[in-house]
Design a protein that fits this description.
There is one protein chain. The protein starts with 7 loop residues before the first helix and ends with a helix. The longest helix is centred in the last third of the chain and has 22 residues. Helix 2 packs across helix 3. The protein has one domain. 19% of the residues are buried. It contains 3 helices and 8 strands; from the N terminus they run ααββββββββα. Helix content is 24%, strand content 42%. A 4-stranded antiparallel sheet has the order 2-1-8-7. Strands 3-4-5-6 form a 4-stranded antiparallel sheet, with no helix packed on it. It is α+β, with helices and mostly antiparallel strands.
């Protein structure tokens, strides 16, 4: 029996649509089922990456005042964006992972910040572009507003890149051990 395969474009759309719920395993479950049923070529997942991002606002004494976690799925060369909007502040950060021919990974981080200060009400614009060599699984810190002891707060982004295949394999392993545990107790 010939099983229809899902084209690569559909996989990328599924990855893009599923990026918002990748943390809770729904995307991993969907992709795992597609691979298991022979409807998805497993090699398409080999270059897929998951970026885990933690955004933290640090007070002047470096205590966290606020943070949020997000996971986004992408492929090398395709960017993901983070936007933070506040009353007097707008921050846009774009991360793009690239793999060199040598196998070394670079994370290109572009930050744009618009802010206004109360007395003048003039808007200021800052921009930064960094290319950061990174290993998969290594944590990278990015400060789109810079880092200064004179600031009343610091915006810190922590980024970690994982091969999505490893996360999918980990999900499959956990799924299989859960099945074995439930079979054992029946």
């Amino acid at each position: 029996m010939i099983k229809p395969r899902i084209p690569a474009v559909a996989v990328l759309l599924l990855l893009a649509a599923g990026a918002g719920f990748a943390q809770n395993g729904d995307l991993a479950q969907a992709l795992y089922d597609l691979v298991e049923n022979g409807r998805l070529d497993p090699s398409l997942l080999d270059r897929t990456l998951q970026l885990d991002i933690v955004v933290t606002v640090l007070q002047s004494d470096e205590r966290p005042a606020w943070n949020i976690k997000s996971s986004k799925v992408t492929i090398p060369g395709r960017s993901i964006a983070i936007k933070l909007l506040g009353e007097n502040l707008r921050v846009e950060v774009v991360f793009t992972p690239y793999q060199r021919e040598s196998g070394v990974w670079d994370l290109v981080a572009q930050g744009q910040v618009w802010y206004s200060e109360a007395p003048q009400k003039t808007t200021r614009y800052l921009t930064t572009l960094e290319s950061i060599p990174v290993s998969l699984g290594e944590k990278v810190l990015f400060f789109p507003l810079g880092f200064s002891e004179q600031q009343t707060f610091t915006l810190q982004l922590e980024i970690e890149i994982f091969p999505f295949r490893d996360l999918l394999d980990q999900y499959a392993s956990e799924r299989n051990s859960t099945k074995a545990d439930s079979t054992h107790f029946n």
